[in-house]
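Researcher: Structure for this, please.
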Amino acid sequence: MAASHDLSRVRHLDTLERMETTTRRPALPALTGLRALAAGWVVVFHYREELLTLQPALAPLDTLMRAGYLGVDLFFALSGFVLAYTYADRMRSFRRGDSARFVRNRFARVWPVHVLALHVDLALAALVGTLGTTTEGIRRTGGAYLENLGMVHYWVNDRPSFNSPAWSISAEWFAYLLAPLLFVLVARLRRAGSALALAGASYAVMLGIYATMALPNGNLENMFWVRIMGEFLAGVLLCLAWTRGRARLGGLAVLLPVTVAVVALVPEASGGHYWAAPALGLGVAGLAASSGTLVRVLSWRWVVAAGEASYALYMVHWLFERPIEWATGLAAGDPWASTLVLVAVVGVLGATAHLVATRVEQPARRRLVGRPRRKPAPKPAVPPATEVPERPAHALAALR
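Model: Predicted structure, token format:
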């Protein structure tokens, strides 16, 4: 009897665990909205000189724009946090099928827009005659093209290639392939303090490597994995500290605006370095755990919509480099023309990002994931003389 009772209890606990790990968690719209700010920060970083030429009144924001490279670090921490929030408890044990589905879903998420941008850049380079390896070291070669198709271009060579911002997609792809193993390795973490300590260690190792081994330009040679894995893993661990350890992180949301203010006012706080990255990662965790004003603002519908198009914006914005430089040169010195060009740039980039997100990214992801068709419900038997009134169809909204 005791053995039977124990067996029943084990089965009950196993059932509860499966229910816990397969239940979809509430959405975090504020983190989607935060992606829009991260992408916008990177865009103004890349077009800082053009913005200051068109609108010299933006000069007080120069330091903030110079720190826009940190938008990528914000993305990396966000990526680890959100994926852990969605998958970590479902993938505590390594299963080949679950891991394959995870990798397929991540491939479907990033590859279609990447390959679109790759071929647009290829066509533009062929048009203006910049194929091959340029004097700046940008690689638009046959080998680089094949590497880009597999999203491994940054693994084998840290020089820019087609559509320069796509280096980070290659780094993300590396993290995605390792994520199923990472989820298994962190599966036994239950204490918030342990997860927070490991997140701090992950950032510390990354910053230590940069402090001791970085080149004069602040980059690491042939060590692409340091930045992505330090920040992606820290994001995973910060998420676990909140969801499993129940760490009270809501008060840390203030670190996001405070960090932005510091890098905007103190040039030494960024200057090509990554000391602000841990504060941004903690801010992500704090935002997820908070319910304050910042969460409400970032959860506004139009901000979330911008966040949903943020990946497309990030991937296409540098494709407009030449026309934006040309238009800026024409309008320089004319206030009305400069304002018109600035409005046009914002409009074109926003509209292009929206179109790519809705017409390429989302349909291609659905096609690659291949959601199974639902079988129609059997119709109830109705006597011939009975009339059945038609009911209006209801639209169902699915949260991802």
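Researcher: Any notable elements?
Model: The first helix runs from residue 2 to 22. The first strand starts at residue 132 and ends at 133.
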